[in-house]
Amino acid sequence: MSRNGLYIAYDPIYSYPLPEGHRFPMIKYELIPGQLLYEGLIREENLVAPAVCPDKVILYTHDHDYLGRLHNQTLSAKEQREIGFPQSPQLTLRELIITQGTINCSLHALSHGIALNVAGGTHHAYAGKGEGFCLLNDFAVAANYLLQEQLASRILIIDLDVHQGNGTAKLFEHEKRVFTFSMHGRHNYPFRKEISDLDIPLEDGTDTITYLDLLKKNLPPVIKSYQPDFAFYLSGVDILATDKFGKLKVSTEGCRERDRFVFQILHENHIPCTVAMGGGYSPDIRDIITAHCNTFREAAMISDN
């Protein structure tokens, strides 16, 4: 590891063929590590390519029949429409690699405090179906892995993507060892929300000050009362005012302050954290890369302490 010791799970999306029209939002998975390497925040040794997550671990969370349909490429046309991608062996493979990356990050974070997955945050996937470009729910699989292996006992999932993590909320609705916290657009996808342990719906046009005030008001009491021993943080940058789908008005610096606050409060409470990037759909790719790289910059500051 380089001076800051960041552990970054990295699986380049561009190594898999995608239909025309899907390349733009996915190119960020190539550009984020490139930018971090260029500015010297990380070295090649910080980037770790995961293996494929074993079926046994996936089945802690997902239905056997659904996993079989992913492997055998037998998803129905309706299922593929809900996911948003046509099925392919490459995409299933990528999802299995991303999921193992989140598990690897979690194991590293247990010893070193924080680790990040360049991809991940596939929070719309349910036990038996995918939605919203999510085939498998990597946070849920990793959380269940930690519980199964008795590596954590009280897990907090902090989902600050602009879209509610409906799959995550549903998967853990009866699991008291996992607390789901979501701040998301009230009028944004998914239009049928599930019930998280704490949902904070945001009105269209929510600005930076309002957003940060709500986060700083609501997250600390959850940490104080629930006392998690592990956290997952979905740091979507689709809250930006520039995002074409987000409907919020948060500035780039406000998004960075959000990350800084989350990392600081977890660090102060000695809670290890795995981070995934989540969504970001600003028309100018530079806005997306800047905001995502800010997450890594803030994480590096924490890991240096």
Automatic annotation (TrEMBL):
Keyword Metal-binding tagged: no
InterPro entries reported for this sequence: HDAC_classIV, HDACs, His_deacetylse_dom, His_deacetylse_dom_sf, Ureohydrolase_dom_sf
Gene Ontology terms for molecular function: histone deacetylase activity; hydrolase activity
UniProt KW Transferase keyword: no
Gene Ontology biological process terms, A to Z: epigenetic regulation of gene expression
Coiled-coil parts of chain: none
Domain (Histone deacetylase): residue spans on this chain: 27-292
Domain of life assignment: Bacteria
Family matches, as CDD domains: HDAC_classIV (cd09993)
UniProt entry keywords in alphabetical sequence: Hydrolase
Family that this chain belongs to: Belongs to the histone deacetylase family.
Protein name as it appears in the record: Deacetylase
Lineage: Bacteria, Pseudomonadati, Bacteroidota, Chitinophagia, Chitinophagales
